[in-house]
Design a protein that fits this description.
mainly alpha, single chain, 117 residues
């Protein structure tokens, strides 16, 4: 069980920066309305929920429980479910932010800014 929890902790440390935290890359110059448009589009993007986090958490817990049960006994299955749920939740959060980042980029492009990512 300790090994599975260690794998979960190592997986969490691999995530250094989520997509919504990265600054926007612009091809050209930023005009006067860039900052206000970015604030509005960021608020719009953050409110968009794709629902991937819950699904990834569930599948991670199931996968972890099955892996733990194959490796050891019932305690390993519980530890695997916990570790898998944690990793699945992190993966789901990252996937949600990838979708939100694309919403942000699309919003900025629709307002006439040359945002490339």
């Amino acid at each position: 069980m300790k090994k599975l929890v260690l794998v979960a902790v190592l997986g969490l440390t691999a995530c250094t920066q989520y997509p919504m935290q990265k600054p926007l890359a612009v091809d050209g110059t930023r005009n006067a309305s860039f900052a206000s448009d970015e604030a509005h589009c960021t608020a719009l993007a953050i409110n968009y929920q794709s629902g991937k986090r819950g699904m990834d958490t569930t599948f991670g817990a199931i996968d972890g429980a099955l892996t733990g049960a194959m490796i050891g006994d019932g305690y390993d299955a519980v530890g695997g479910a916990v570790a898998g749920g944690i990793l699945g939740s992190v993966k789901g959060q990252y996937n949600d932010e990838l979708v939100q980042r694309q919403v942000l980029v699309n919003c900025m492009q629709a307002r006439g800014h040359s945002v490339i990512g």
